[in-house]
Write a structure and sequence with these properties.
This protein starts with a strand and ends in an 8-residue tail after the last helix. It is globular. The protein folds into 2 domains: 188 residues, Rossmann fold (3-Layer(aba) Sandwich); 186 residues, Glycogen Phosphorylase B (Rossmann fold, 3-Layer(aba) Sandwich). The protein has 14 helices and 15 strands. It is of the alpha/beta class and 389 residues long.
Length: 389
Amino acid sequence: MQAFNVLYLIESLEVGGSEVFVERLVSRLDRSMFVPMVCCLARKGTLASRVENGGTRVMSLDWRLGSSRSTMGTVEKLTRLVRNERVDLVHSFFYRPEILGVFSARLAGAPVFLASQRDLLAPEGRIVRVFWRLADRLVTHVVANSEEGRRYRERAVGRPCSKTSVIYNGVPAEELGAGGAEAHPWQPDGRVNGEAAGPNPVITFVGRLHPVKGPDVFVRAAELVSRVVPDARFVMAGDGPARSELRDLIQRLGLDAIVTMPGAVSPPGCILKQSSLVVCPSRTESFPTVILEAMGLGVAVVAAKVGGVCELVEDGVDGFLFESENVTQLAELVVGLLRDRERAVSAGVRARRKVMTRFRFEDTVAQTEALYLRLLEGRRGSGAMLVTS
C-alpha cells in the first residue's frame, strides 16, 4: 500500500498546546503509511523550524484575518495546494482552519477531512458560528482530546456521537526522563529559567496570558499565599494579550519581588521540573497539556475543576482541585501543600505513575494512525476515490 498524504492545517506554529501536539505527532507518524505536511494559514511560527528539521514540510499561506480579499485568496491557494499535493486526509486544528479548510478540501476533492475539538470555546461572532456549523456538515469526523470536549462539540453543532472519537493526549517517553518527585527534590535546584532562584518554594503557572487561562486568579492567590508563606516565589511562564494588565496587577498588589514573568518557555518541562507546585487556574479547559506534563514529571498540580480536568486529575490522590475563580480556596490549597510537603510529593509520585501507564504519547500516535486508516478505508469502501502519492 502506498503511503497516504496527510495535511495538518493550523493558523500558525507559535508555541501552544495544540501546536506542540502537531510537532510531536508529525515526527512520530509511521512514514511507511503516512506522508505528513503542515500548512499554516498565517505565519509559520517559532516551532516551524523544529518541524522542518524533523523532515516535514511546513508551508504558509500568509492569510490576513479580517480581510475578505485575503480570505478568498487563501481558500483558493489552499484548494490548489490540496489538489496539487494529492492530499488524502486533512487534519485541522481550531475553528478558523476548520472553516476555511473544509470548504477548500471539498473543492479539491480530498476524501477525508478530520476536525479537532481541543477546547470548550465557541467561535466569536454569530456569523462565524453559523459558518462553523455549516462547515461541520462537511467534516468527515471529529477527534476530541477529552470526553468533555466530545460532549461540548455535540451540544454546539448537534453532531451525533458516532462521528466523534476521543483520543487523549499523552507525554512522550523521552520527555518523562528520570524525573518525578521520587527523583528530584522538593526545593528547586536554585535556578528558574536560567536565573538564580534561591532555596524558596516555587509555584508555577505555564500558559497563555489570556483571561480564559485565569492568570489573574493565579496572581491574586499569590498575594494571599505570600501573607502566610513569605518565602514562596511565583513564576508565570507564557505570553499573551493580558501581559501588561497582569504586570499592573502585580505592581498594585506589591508582588514585584516575588512574581517572575519570563515570557514563553519552550520546552515547558525545563521550568515545570524546577517547581514545587504547578497551578492551572483556567476558566475553561478540555484537556490541558501543562497539567499532563507536570504530572509526568512528578510535580504536584493544583487545578481549577473545569472541563476535562477531572478526566486527568483525581482530587486528593494525584492532584488537587478547586472551584474555578475561587482565589481563596486556591490559596488555601497551596498553603496547605507548602506546609505538608510529603502530601504534595506523594501526589506527584502517583501522578507520574498514572501518566506513564495511561497517558503515553506513543498510544496517542497509535490511536490517531488507526483512526486515519479507518476513515480512509471507510471512504474507499464507500466507493470514494483515494488519490495516494
